[in-house]
Every structure is written in structure tokens, then in C-alpha cells.
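Item description
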Amino acid sequence: MERITAFITGLIIAVMAVFNTELGKATTNEVSITINQITGIVALTAVLLLFRKNKTVNPERKKAPWYLWGGGLFGLIVITTNYFSITGSGATVAMASAVFGQCLMGIIYDITGLMGMEKRRISKLKAVGTVISFLGIMVMFAFSKAAISPLYALIGAAGGAITMIQMVYNSIFASYKGAFFSARQNVISGLIGIVLYSFLFNTDATINGWKAVPGIPVSILIGGGILACFVVVLANTIIPRIPAADSSVLMSSGQVMMAAVIDAALYSKLETALVAGSVLMIIGLILSRQAE
């Protein structure tokens, strides 16, 4: 069940990234992030209050180290990298790059046991799968009709790696406070960070971005924030239960598949090269999964 949930989480991540990007285009990236954080705080607080007697939603909370309270700061970086990567290269290439970054970071966790994760041996088959996934990205860049800068692949991969770091970080905090409380704290810390940044370094653009908000459909306004809540809660639940590389592979497969659908449906960017690259990505991910 955890593995199915990981795959579904990947589907949600791809849709969430598009919601965030569209909101950022209509306002600014900073306004988009701020609205997402506010939406998440309201939604998660409502859940915590409605189910305050439910031990699954509100388990007994333990004292957590101070350095685990700032997970939302990772999220600011992830949303920003998604914004630039999707607007510069389309959803498929952006998600494929992010997927590669997630898988690579998952392997690093398994090799090193970083942040208290269990160390696991990386087989030759998993290494081959990772190389094939990388070749899939190269196919997208080499044969795509559109001129796509490799810089967007680096940005996307960095965002994917940071996504994996954030998920592990939040899951550790959730072991002290519960998945829903951890998710809410994640968006609270993110809100504090983005508000400070917006008004200290991008004041005029932020004010103009907020002026555009009344004309934006409600689905675009709150879609990314609501989906982000699902992603954080689901990730907090599944990551401690299965290997880091395994969860990254399953979430990545969902992201790549959904991104291809999004590109075809919304951006009319689905090309033979993108399809071929996506197939290679998925083959690589399946090989990595079989290596477990």
C-alpha cells in the first residue's frame, strides 16, 4: 500500500507544480508561494481541529529538536525551481529533470545513511537504471524541436534533489509531532520566509502581483496549496516505511507520466522526443525498482 501511495504522490507533485507555475505567471513567483502557504495553513489547521480527538491525525507529540522546525524553507526553493524549469522547458522536461534529482538524492541517502536514514547497498542494476534515466533526459534535450537550455535541466534536478531532502527532513519531524502537525509547521515556516523575502527584496513586484489576485480563478489560487498539503502528509507517512531510493523511484514514475499528460493537454508540447525520453526515464526507474 505504501508503494501505491508513493506513486500517487508523484502524480500529485506534477499537478501541484503546474498549479504553482500558472499562479506565478498570473502574479509573481513570490505571491504564488505566499498564497500556497496560507492555503496550506488554513486547510491543515481545519483538519487538526476537526479531528483533534483522532490519534492518527493528532498523535501524542514529543519535543522535537529546534532545527526541524524550518522545513518550509526547502519548499520555497522547490517551488521556485519548478517555476523556472516548467516555464523554460515545459512540464515533461522539468519533471524528468526533477525526477532524476530525486532518484540521485535517494541513492545518496541509501549509500550514506544521511539524516539518520538506513544505509542500503546500491546494486549494479540500480546504477544501470539511473544511467538509463539520465539518457532519457538527454534524449529530450537532443531531439526536441524546441530549443531547450541545459540550464533548465540543472535547475529541475536541483529542485528534485531538494524535494527529496525536504521530504526526509519533514518525515523526521513528523516522527515527533505527527504527519499533519509537521505538514502545517512546514507551511508556517515557508510563509514566514517568503513574506520576509518578498517585502525586503522584491517589494514593488510583490505589491503589483497581489493586485492581480482578484482576477484569478479560485482553482488556480488554492489548487497548489491544497495539493501541497496532500504531498507533505503522504510523504511524511510513507518515507519512514520504505527505502528512500524506492520511494523516490515510485514518486518519480508518477511525476514523469503525469507531466507528459499535462504537456499534451495544457501546453501542446508533447513531441516524439519527449515521449521517447519519458519512456527511457520510466524504464530506468523500473530497473531501479527491480534492484530492491
